[in-house]
Each structure stands twice: as C-alpha cells, then as structure tokens.
Amino acid sequence: MSIQQSTFMKILGALYWFVVVSYSALEPWGSIDTRDFSYMGSYKFWEYNALIVFQLVSMIALGFLLWRGKAGRKTLAMITVISTLFITMNVFDMLHFFPDPAQPMPLLVSSQISIVG
User: Fold this and answer.
1) Full-prediction pTM beyond 0.85?
2) Which residue of 22, 31, 76, 98 is 20 to 30 Å from 113, comparing CA positions?
3) What is the pLDDT of residues 69-103, one digit of tens each?
4) How many domains are there within the chain?
C-alpha cells in the first residue's frame, strides 16, 4: 500500500469513527436519548437494542480496519451494509417510527445529529 493510499485510509477511518462516536450518543443509554420505549414491550425493546449494539460494535471494528489500512473489498462491503443500516435507522427515526424524546434536545446536539444523519 502506498503512502498516499495509507494516508487516505487513515483519514477515512477517522471520519468513520466520528460517525460512530456521534451515533453512540443516540443509543438508548446514550447522553441525549430520553425516549420512553415502554410501549414496545420487552422483546421488541431488546431486539432493537441488540441491533443498535451490533451496529455500533461492527462500526468500531470496521473503523479500526480502515485505520490500520487492512480494508479489502469484504471490509468495504461490510462498511456499506452497516452504514446502510445506520441510514435506515435514521430514516425510521425521522418518520417517527420510534417515540419522540420526552425532553427537547439542545440546539447544538440537534444540529450535530442533522449533520451526521
């Protein structure tokens, strides 16, 4: 791998990690999510949590592979799939599939979410 390609992969990995960090704030245990999921029932709630945790762990691992420059075609395909799931979850959220937050988000936080999502 050339130096230029290696630098590009490190930049791509850093940008991808930025998305991961901003996404982790949206987790049910995250700093800004104050939603009430009690209407979903425990099975659907934990199914939702399992999907979110799987996405987050996968994104962290794939970001590490990008950073190390070990991203081949399979890794890039996995990044595409996980990122598509991320976008799908955001679309569902915008369509109000999930409950609205109990408290309004601060302007800075909501503007960061709109940039990422």
Assistant:
1) no
2) 76
3) 776 777 777 777 777 777 777 677 667 666 665 55
4) 1
